Amino acid sequence: MNWFQSFLVSSIGQKIIMSLTGIFLMLFLVVHLVGNLQLLHDDGGQAFNLYTYFMTHNPLIKTVSYLLYITVLIHAIQGILITRKNQASAGGMNRYVKKSTYTTTLANRYMAFWGILIFIFLVIHLKDFWYVMKFTSDLEMVTYPGETHEVKNLYQRVAVEFKELWVVILYVVCMVALAFHLAHGFWSAFQTIGASHPKYLRLLKTTGKIFAFLIPLGFALIPVLFYLFK
Amino acid sequence: MKINLKVWRQKNENTAGKMVDYSVNEVSPDMSILEMVDVLNDDLIRKGDDPIAFDHDCREGICGMCSMVVDGRPHGPQHGATTCQLYMRNYKDGDTIYLEPFRAHAFPVVKDLVVNRGAFDRIIAAGGFISVSTGQAQDANNLTVEKAVAERAMDVAACIGCGACVAACPNGSAMLFVSAKVSHLNQLPQGKPEASRRAINMVKQMDAEGFGRCSNVGACEAECPKEISITNIARLNREYLKAVFTSTEE
Ligand code: HEM
Ligand code: SF4
Ligand code: FES
């Protein structure tokens, strides 16, 4: 093994990969949320549909999106492998007859569980919107005034989906899982790459908590508002 | 007072163990928990039973031998203290206490509450030292060390290699221990020349011993008798990255 391969398989190297992919995914969440908030405009979906068209036709964004698919897979697979390895290293889940959980939290104890919920969500979410958008011609085409090209009306599909109560519940539950994942993941990612210091440890942890609250809240609000008001 | 005990009994590494109930009468509040087990062992020996094996040495919180999980917590419920510093005045008549060995894949049980922590020795042998002779006591004063650096190094030098961090960690990770050793030596002028080699080799040995990957849970920091902070783990990661990407060490 050369030095770089040794680094990639080392315990710290494996965690650096988790951290960098995690940070990339968190950046994606911010961009994705800002985009999705276009759904809340009262314009019958024009802003959102034009935005979607832009995101699916810009070559730079298309490249980044392929990077994103790979990143999710690497993060998820690596996360599961690390978790299994760690369970073996600890000597099993029930290593102590008398258990004490005071040093851990709901968030950091079940990172892999929250992650798996997020993964299941991603599969359903991608099938409902991304797949329909990219690989089918089920969506109606619309041309907005001032535009020369037709765009797919993804907004309409979103509006139909979010009239289903079970879909709304699924989205909200999965956003709770995301909140837990980020409540620990945000600060953890910085600690892993070494960007943690007593000088700004509190700031890092507080920012992480706020991020973990606001981002999933933003995502969860969209289906709830659609269900109630649109 | 009377104390009920549930103790992990295991003949050796290759046999299965189980919890066994005991009770100890006339426990004095001034006894440490280890002294209470001494009293119980006296009793067991007199009855012709096998005494409970447990590690101990200094009995004053400086050697790190007294590995034991008391009521699910390495070294018991006290913060910043070892098992030998846990006094029975913290308990009341009729209390039940669970005693179990430190558990981790890399710390196999030798007998009862005794585990083999040789993995830590091998990690130290991989880089937790300074190769050159650092001279006599007066030579230490010839090398000036900035006060703040000396303080930080001293904080981590307090690590007694007890392994409570591993026993507490849900991942059985030894990162707090290794980060303490690397932070101690890599911050001091005597340790600088070998800093990269140390970081790489100690991490390599830690991995080879089968310790887990750090999830930044912080259980280690909460249970460490010497209150080593996990910000040292961030420092270890920095030292490791620096060594991997900026030194010739492999
Ligand atoms: C948008 C989705 C996701 C984001 C933003 C995200 C973010 C993060 C971040 C920032 C970390 C902390 C990294 C570190 O400790 O250095 C993390 C850890 C983790 N993630 Fe994710 N994650 C996502 C999805 C997933 C998925 C789908 C899975 C698995 C199926 C997963 C499994 C894990 C696990 C197991 C860890 C803990 C690794 C460890 O510290 O041992 N994550 N995630
Ligand atoms: S870091 Fe703390 S808990 Fe871990 S071996 Fe050192 S003194 Fe013990
Ligand atoms: S016996 Fe030495 S620290 Fe407890």
Describe, in plain words, how this protein is organized in 3D.
The complex is a heterodimer of chains A (230) and B (250). By secondary structure, chain A is mainly α. Chain A has a single domain, classed as Fumarate reductase/succinate dehydrogenase, transmembrane subunit (3 helical TM bundles of succinate and fumarate reductases), CATH 1.20.1300. Chain A has nine helices and two strands. A two-stranded antiparallel sheet of chain A has the order 1-2. In chain A, a hairpin with an 8-residue loop joins β1 and β2. Chain B has 250 residues and is of the alpha+beta class. In chain B, 36% of the residues lie in helices and 11% in strands. In chain B, the strands form two sheets. In chain B, strands 2-1-5-3-4 form a five-stranded mixed beta sheet. A two-stranded antiparallel ribbon of chain B has the order 6-7. Chain B is elongated. The mean pLDDT of chain B is 96. The interface between A and B is large, with 43 and 49 residues. Bound molecules: protoporphyrin IX containing FE, iron/sulfur cluster and FE2/S2 (inorganic) cluster. Iron/sulfur cluster binds next to α5 and α6 of chain B.
What is the CA-CA span between the terminal residues of chain B? 59 Å
Spatial strand arrangement across the major sheet of chain B: 2-1-5-3-4
Largest sheet of chain A: 2 strands, antiparallel
H/E element sequence of chain B: EEHEEEEEHHHHHHHH
- Class of chain A, according to the CATH hierarchy? Mainly Alpha
- Morphology of chain B: elongated
Rg of chain A computed from alpha carbons, rounded to a whole number of angstroms: 20 Å
- Helicity level of chain A: over 70%
CATH topology of the largest domain in chain B: Fumarate Reductase Iron-sulfur Protein, Chain B, domain 2
CATH level 4 superfamily of chain A? Fumarate reductase/succinate dehydrogenase, transmembrane subunit
Q: Helix amount of chain B, in percent?
A: 25-40%
> How does the helix and strand content of chain A classify structurally?
mainly alpha
Q: Determine the strand fraction of chain A and express it as a percent band.
A: under 5%
**CATH arch. level architecture of chain A:** Up-down Bundle
CATH topology of chain A: 3 helical TM bundles of succinate and fumarate reductases
Quaternary state reads: heterodimer
